[in-house]
Design brief:
By secondary structure, this protein is of the alpha/beta class. About 40% of the residues lie in helices and about 10% in strands. The protein has 18 helices and twelve strands. Helix 7 links the parallel strand 7 and strand 8. The radius of gyration is 25 Å and the shape is globular.
Length: about 425
């Protein structure tokens, strides 16, 4: 019996139509998920001038896939300053690191710039958590030897506060983040000359990590912010172990994973609702992040790391769409949990989050602020430019590259003043 070629062609076309119909049904099913989940993300955008200053803006479509390869690692484009250019003085500059690693980066930068300009000796800081009495030494978090070595020939550093310094002869001086030479001359130097020693306290009038015009202290600031802080070996091993665990869980995505800065306590403080008539947002909840990631094309098998330390019910909406969603408690090495997770202080947890978010393949800041800005800086310096800023997607899908942070697309982050 002969085979009718027309029947074969008709059969193939029929099968193709069934496959296409099946795919359409799958897409329609996902498109309805947002409506079924409570608290939909309607009328959400990031177009206000205030958020644009923080890099939180959506962009027109650009080339690049979900797992866009890292950009070329940039190289420092500053020359290391030399101490011979500064007249030494006998005084000391003391300070503390506070509020978590995203603040430490800026506080270190300002202290080094001030000490350098004054010709003073910098005293290695202690680290203070958000709770009263939560104090640690610098070496509990960071590598002391590498810090001191990085500043060799730039600023004199002593590890311990000299005995002759007391609270009685220390003047507390507040300086704005990214302190300028003019500010030091007008507000800091006169007090230093009068008292001989000062204690710095950095305040943050705004979240401003945008690229600025060149000035004579750019090389010092660049070195201070990007070239001094490294984790001490034990914490670095914990971070490496957790990143390795996430990559092991990412076999279907070739070892790649997403890190999302999503902390329930911060979401509750910010409210995560629209700001006035502009309909702008400064943060997104778990459900909104889940819908955003799914509509930008990430598969349900994609591993997602959250900066929330312990699982909470409000995160279930994210796990429903991305079952491989993890918090620290589920992937931290068991023998390290007691020290780094179950301790009363949260400083270790913040540090682990900051560095995992800096090393992930994709970073999504669900919360605007300094954590996002300084993680972006570390990622840009390392060539990890896949930083996606969430927004409502009214259509069924969108390109992930539509949402690359303004810091990267416009190259307006401070990191682009320091790396090229």
């Amino acid at each position: 019996m002969g085979v009718d070629l027309r029947q074969v062609v008709a059969g193939v076309l029929t099968l193709t139509m069934f496959v296409m119909l099946g795919n359409m049904i799958k897409r329609d099913h996902f498109d309805s998920v947002e409506e079924k989940l409570p608290g939909g993300a309607s009328n959400v955008n990031l177009d206000s001038d205030e958020l644009a200053e923080q890099g939180l803006v959506t962009l027109s479509k650009r080339s690049g896939g979900l797992w866009k390869e890292d950009g070329q690692q940039l190289k420092p484009c500053w020359d290391k300053p030399v101490l011979d250019d500064v007249e030494p003085t006998d005084g000391f500059v003391t300070f503390s690191l506070t509020n978590g690693p995203e603040y430490h980066v800026s506080q270190i930068g300002d202290a080094i710039v001030v000490a350098r300009y004054l010709g003073a000796t910098l005293v290695l800081p202690d680290i203070r958590g958000s709770k009263p009495g939560d104090e640690r030494s610098f070496e509990d978090i960071y590598d002391v030897e590498k810090f001191v070595k990085s500043l060799d020939g730039v600023v004199r550093v002593v590890k311990d506060q000299p005995a002759q310094i007391s609270t009685r002869n220390l003047a507390v001086v507040k300086v704005p983040n990214r302190v300028t030479e003019d500010y030091i001359v007008e507000h800091v130097k006169p007090i230093y000359k009068q008292k001989g020693n000062i204690r710095l306290a950095t305040y943050f009038p705004s979240v401003n990590m945008r690229k600025s015009a060149k000035n004579s202290y750019d090389s010092v600031a660049c070195l201070a912010v990007f070239g001094t802080l490294q984790l001490q070996p034990e914490i670095q091993e914990v971070v490496d172990s957790m990143v390795g665990r996430l990559r092991t869980l990412s076999r279907k995505s070739d070892g790649q994973f997403i890190a999302v800065d999503l902390r329930v306590d911060m979401l509750e403080k910010k409210g995560c609702h629209e700001n006035g008539d502009a309909g702008t947002r400064s943060c997104y909840n778990a459900q909104e992040i889940a819908v955003f990631l799914r509509k930008t094309g990430f598969d349900k098998d994609t591993p997602v790391y959250l900066t929330e330390s312990r699982w909470q019910g409000s995160l279930d909406a994210l796990k429903d769409l991305f079952p491989k969603t993890y918090t620290k408690e589920s992937i931290i090495p068991a023998d390290k949990k007691g020290k780094f997770l179950d301790s009363e202080g949260s400083e270790y947890e913040k540090v682990i989050d900051f560095y995992i978010c800096s090393e992930s393949d994709v970073f999504v800041p669900a919360i605007s602020g300094l954590f996002y800005s300084n993680v972006a800086g570390k990622r840009i310096a390392a060539g990890r430019t896949q930083i996606l800023v969430p927004a409502n997607i009214p259509e069924s899908s969108a390109s992930a590259s539509d949402f690359i942070t303004h810091y990267v697309s416009k190259k307006n982050h401070l990191a682009y003043s320091c790396f090229c």
